[in-house]
Structure formats: structure tokens, C-alpha cells
Amino acid sequence: MMRLLSALGMLVFTTATGIAGEVDVIDVKVRGGGTDFRFSVTVEHADEGWDHYADAWEVVGEDGTIYGKRILAHPHVDEQPFTRSGTASIPEGIKTVIVRAHDSVHGLGGKEMRVDLPGR
């Protein structure tokens, strides 16, 4: 009986710490041109507080080069989805980037978006 309770306790613990799941990028708006761009990124995540929340989004090239990153400094438990803006410097010749998000438990994951840069 003790082993069964122990196994159930582990199951409950695992489930409780993973409820929020991964963070998804659900919308991206891009302005700018040349090499300087401003991204408004909407992310969605079931933030649970300081132990599990969406903590960043980043703009990367198809080769994995990170061109810009926005740190999200606190949980957004009561504000979902939410949008935050940031900038990225992207070399000429790059026409498409990927915007992906990060959370404090799972790291990178969830839905990402491929975005064509204006004027390219």
C-alpha cells in the first residue's frame, strides 16, 4: 500500500508542476527596415507565478542566430495572452526570422512563428 501511495504522490507532484505547459507565440507584428526592426510579440502561457512563467521571447534566424531577445521580468498570471515589444538588429539579406518563446520550467517550446521582414 505504501508503494502505491508513493507512486500516486509522484504522479500528483509531476502533474501539478507541469500544468502550465509550454509557452506559445500567437501573434507577431514587425515594423522597421534596413537592419533595425521592432517586434510586438503576443505570447500565451498559463503562468502559475514565479516558479513557472513565460520569461522571454527571441528573434532568431533559420540558422539559429539570435538577433534579439526580450526578457519578461515577471509572471503574467492575470494577463493572458499578453504582448510585449522589443527590437532586433538583423543583417541585410535575411528575409525571414523565427520568433519563439521561453518559459522558466520548459525552456524553449510551444508554438513559434516564422515572420517575413518588411521591405525584404
Structure description:
The protein is built from one helix and eight strands. The chain has 120 residues and is mostly beta strands. The chain has one domain: SOR catalytic domain (Immunoglobulin-like, Sandwich). The strands form two sheets. Strands 3, 4, 6, 7 and 8 form a five-stranded antiparallel sheet that branches. The protein has a three-stranded antiparallel sheet with strand order 1-2-5, with no helix packed on it. The longest helix is centred in the first third of the chain and has 16 residues, at 2-17. It starts with a helix and ends with a strand.
Blueprint (SSEs and pairs):
Blueprint: H1 2-17, E1 24-33, E2 36-44, E3 54-60, E4 66-71, E5 82-89, E6 96-103, E7 107-108, E8 113-116
Antiparallel strand pairs: 1-2, 2-5, 3-4, 3-6, 6-7, 6-8
Summarize the main sheet.
Answer: 5 strands, antiparallel
Listing every helix as H and every strand as E from the N terminus to the C terminus, the arrangement reads HEEEEEEEE
Mean pLDDT equals 86
Number of β-strand runs:
8
CATH class: Mainly Beta
Question: What is the annotated CATH architecture?
Answer: Sandwich
Estimate nothing, just give the exact number of structural domains. Answer: 1
Find the CATH topology: Immunoglobulin-like
In DSSP terms, counting alpha (H) and pi (I) runs of 4 or more, how many helices?
A: 1
Beta-sheet strand percentage? over 45%
Overall SS class: mainly beta
- Coarse shape: elongated
